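Lab notebook, page 48
Experiment: co-folding of the full assembly
Goal: obtain a model of how the components sit together before planning crosslinking
Operator: M.T.
Materials (sequences as entered):
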Amino acid sequence: MKRLQVQSSVGNYEVLVGRGAWRELGGLTGFTSAFVLTEGNLWKTWGSQFKRRTGWARLQPIVVPPGETSKSLTMAGRVAAELLNRGADRRSFLVALGGGVVGDLGGFVASTYMRGIAYAQAPTTVLAQVDSAIGGKTAVNIRAAKNLVGTFYAPRLVASDPTVLGSLSLRAFRSGLYEAVKHSILAGPALFDWLDGKLAGLRPHDTAMLEALVGRAAAVKVGVVSRDEREADLRRILNLGHTYGHALEEATAYRRFLHGEAVAWGVLLVTRLAEIVGLLDPGEGKRISRLVRSVGPLPPIRGLREEKILRLLPRDKKAVGGKIHWVLPENIGKVRVTPDVPPAAVSAAFREVQRGVWNG
Amino acid sequence: MKRLQVQSSVGNYEVLVGRGAWRELGGLTGFTSAFVLTEGNLWKTWGSQFKRRTGWARLQPIVVPPGETSKSLTMAGRVAAELLNRGADRRSFLVALGGGVVGDLGGFVASTYMRGIAYAQAPTTVLAQVDSAIGGKTAVNIRAAKNLVGTFYAPRLVASDPTVLGSLSLRAFRSGLYEAVKHSILAGPALFDWLDGKLAGLRPHDTAMLEALVGRAAAVKVGVVSRDEREADLRRILNLGHTYGHALEEATAYRRFLHGEAVAWGVLLVTRLAEIVGLLDPGEGKRISRLVRSVGPLPPIRGLREEKILRLLPRDKKAVGGKIHWVLPENIGKVRVTPDVPPAAVSAAFREVQRGVWNG
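Observation: model returned without errors.
Model output:
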């Protein structure tokens, strides 16, 4: 079992990665009652094991429909009403058992139910285990605006059991691996080289390997958020690949790409962009694109109109005047955050990667 | 201008009470843009003065309908969407200009918009100036459950100008005075005696007197929340009169009583209850009931069924098993919080006050 320590301004907590991690949830004490927020299919597959491991034998889940539409204020209100209905009080405990949607929604409900109750994350996707369950960000969507409403609220524990990844579809599984690749570009050669060659044949039930992979990738996120929880600066580097990625998701109404797949394209695109502006050596760029490609096939970006993508590039919410903060790889282990990128280079990178004229 | 310092775990801030207090809002700097959340009629009456005092000449308000129904997650989502629409970013500033509803809603939106932006309270009712705008509690209602969802989130400033009270109806004005009476029972003879004789003829436009009154009553709340922001124990004393009061409001579907009026009845009822259980000297009880009665007439509690009221007495959300935590006056300046009150005494107090057989 790997134990990672998050130090944050809203509280310190552990991220546990390993088979049997759920057992530690049952060891948390001082609560009047425990509730789990999850999805129906997940609970059908993993519910009895979750109850056995945590020791919460009579646990009845609060179930939300799968998919991004559950990340709404309406759903948050329904979950709160359901908690009240079942007698949850200020000293009750909520576990979010699921992927990014359940984690974000569950964290938001926990942070606002009776002005805040204790909660934990039990992430069930690669994406959530290596990324979204760590860092204390909670959120719901307001119509078109993703994550517009949310809180910073630390969980008591993040308990990631890699066994649960075994029930993911191959596509969802691979989508999460791209976030691990992204983390390795931030972290440096030790993790990057370790991943190289391992991703191609990796499958959801390769539990031992995944335990190592999730542990190492989660450690990257833990390191970043422990140093800068509120994303003032350092946390921005986690957005590597997300600038193009978000535009791709939005241009296709969140239907063509899974989040990690859009991020994978985003990583390829900024890698080429960094080469074009002379920040990244083409040899390094080739290594990055090869690692991304080794995960598996990506849904095509052919047919997407360049102007549309460029128009949808998300502007930074914090910057006055709304500049784009590009996160560009300088080499494996180092990125630069900069708003100063010529628009012509941004177009060129998109065109070259889209047309396959680059090695990506 | 009176300046009170709140020390709280989520941040320290000042409560300003005095004519011209809004001017200090305009002095807050470091924001990309400022927004005000308010009600239509309030803005019509006070908007131009608010713009002049703050110096925010081009300010356009975000308006919500008056009344408790605006304190919803749906409305919070609409306000967030409107903020986004108008270009609010993470460094924007929100002022809640209004009574308890606008203050609770505005605080909730501020604490969750882009995971939290800076905000201030500019309370416009007696109730909000002496009580609800102070302490960092934000909330919205979920169907029948009042304040079920909310946050603890400190404002940058609470700016209370007593001039604004001049546009209150006499009834709404008096409803707030009951909270000031409640505070004086907690605070002791200095404030209690000072209020005695002043409340009977007090009118909304008696600005100089109100400045003194609000300043002194607000100081009581500041003292309590500075010592115990999260209501672990001490903050419970602020619920004096609220146990019966909430039951009266709920039994009449929040239609017969303004909140302060229900609290006034609640104070009378626990005063009699404290006499019955031998905690309070009848002479002190008479003084309390006379001060409450001196504010003005209350909507009658005749006709309310005793069993219904007793059934609706709110159980404490924190206590295991859901006991009622009664806040009983022992004398002027001292209350006792206790779950150990015989049900027969609770009934008897209600009956005697309802039938007018007690001096209340």
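Interpretation: Chain B touches chain A through 32 residues (CB under 8 Å).
Next step: discuss with group before ordering constructs.
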